[in-house]
Amino acid sequence: MSPQTIDSPPPPPSPSSSSTWFFSPPIKSRLLSRIRRSFAPLKPVKQATASSDDQFSDDLVVDDSIEQVSWGSNGEFQLVETTDDHDEDEIVDNGSDDEEEEEVAAAAVRRAVKELHFGDWEEKEKAAREIKRLARRKDVKLRKHLAELGVIPPLVAMVDSQARGQVAVQALIQLTTGTFTNKAMVVEAGILSKLPANAEISDPQTRQDFAQLLFSISSLATAHFPLRPSTILPFLSGVLESDSTIETKEACIGTLHNLSTALENTGPLITNGVADMLLRLASIKEISEKALSTLANLAMTSMGKKALEDNAFVPEILIEIMTWEDRPKCQELSAYMLMILAHQNVEQQEKMTKSGIVQVLLEVLLLGSPLAQRRALKMLQWFKDERQAPKMPGSHSGPQSRGSSIADSPVSESESSDGKRMMKKMVKESLDKNMAVIIRRAKVAGESNKMKSLVISSSSKSLPY
């Protein structure tokens, strides 16, 4: 091909040439349509260049949407595979949306931190609401990042404000969720010294917010973080003694439970009358489980056990809780504390016997949960051994009786047989009463036949008591 100027028209393609074709417009249109359908999946190829510097060519562009072809000025064309612009746009849009969302969140964080530190009271309140919204996300790193930017001390300072204290407390609740670091920072910022007395809180929602914040912070006690119960107990006692909602009282009892896990907190809790207060609250079924769990932690110490023994409601209230068939966990906790009180304590055993614990234990032994049944069986063994002790010599693993040992005094066979007959008679009377109670309750529940068969089959077996 001879060189030609740009201004001159290109020569017509030769039929024998393998690089240039020429067809009439209708034939060319059909050919290009067929080629586009056949070669669409192919990968793009490099653009062909003219053989002379004076010549130039344009890419052939096959556009599925408009179905047009661009020709080079030298009459040559080349197939170029095009990608799906719609899919590319979707990918780019998704990435850009994520980046845009992150940029918006970062801008919101910067704006909220700036307004919280340097704004007026209205801007501070607006910033606290924004921080509350941001911290509500399931992103612990964001909460820690907000704390690192110094938002906790200004929020703690806002708690004193009557108009804006509630939103500050709610923001702190969100910031302390799932991170011990933020909880420690809130305590170090002085939140415990800003707790109001219950008489100063008239709004139930404000009381619940403070209770939720203390419940969140009190989990630091399980990590051996130093918390002073003396600064928390006045507020908790005031809320528990008030007409607050069950949710608010449950949060306060949860705080007491967290504090009771640390042995060094037992003294302040007992001194401030927490054991007596929890025993009264244990009669409320909705919060009884947490109250009993806290009492169980306190009962493991000598001071806590002494406080329970001196309470006028013990053991009657614990025996009553053991009859709650719809609260198996409460039954288990109540039986656990009764075991602690009855072990090697004849005075408590006598009080329990007078309160009808034997009948309740037999009922739990038949209908209670597996753990409650094991504990009831253990206590029944203790009471059986204790009653046999004055008549029969021997030692046992349960509670020990007071007074001189009976091993030194001889016991005749007739006295021994009389004691056995008396014990069997007592067991039979107690079992008859227990069967009557069980059958009556079973009839009310519509399960009379099933319960009768259970009691009849159980009566033929030797009982541990």
Keywords:
disordered N terminus, mainly alpha, 465 residues, disordered C terminus
Overview of the structural elements:
This protein is mainly α and 465 residues long. 29% of the residues are buried. The N terminus and C terminus are likely disordered.
How many strand units? Answer: 0
Rg on CA atoms, Å: 42 Å
Order of H and E elements: HHHHHHHHHHHHHHHHHHHHH
Strand content: under 5%
Distance between the termini: 119 Å
| Helix content, binned percent | 55-70%
Shape: elongated
Q: With helices defined by DSSP (H or I, 4 residues minimum), what is the helix count?
A: 21
The overall average pLDDT, rounded, is 75
The structural class is mainly alpha
Largest sheet features: none
Report the uncertain regions: 1-9, 13-23, 41-93, 391-411, 455-465
How is this structure best summarized?
By secondary structure, the chain is an all-alpha fold. Helices cover 61% and strands 0% of the residues.
SSE layout and pairings?
Layout: H1 25-39, H2 85-118, H3 121-135, H4 140-148, H5 152-158, H6 165-175, H7 180-188, H8 204-218, H9 229-240, H10 246-260, H11 266-271, H12 274-281, H13 285-299, H14 302-309, H15 316-321, H16 328-342, H17 346-354, H18 357-367, H19 370-388, H20 413-445, H21 448-459
Helix pairs in contact: 2-3, 3-6, 5-6, 6-8, 8-10, 9-10, 10-13, 12-13, 13-14, 13-16, 16-19, 18-19, 18-20, 20-21
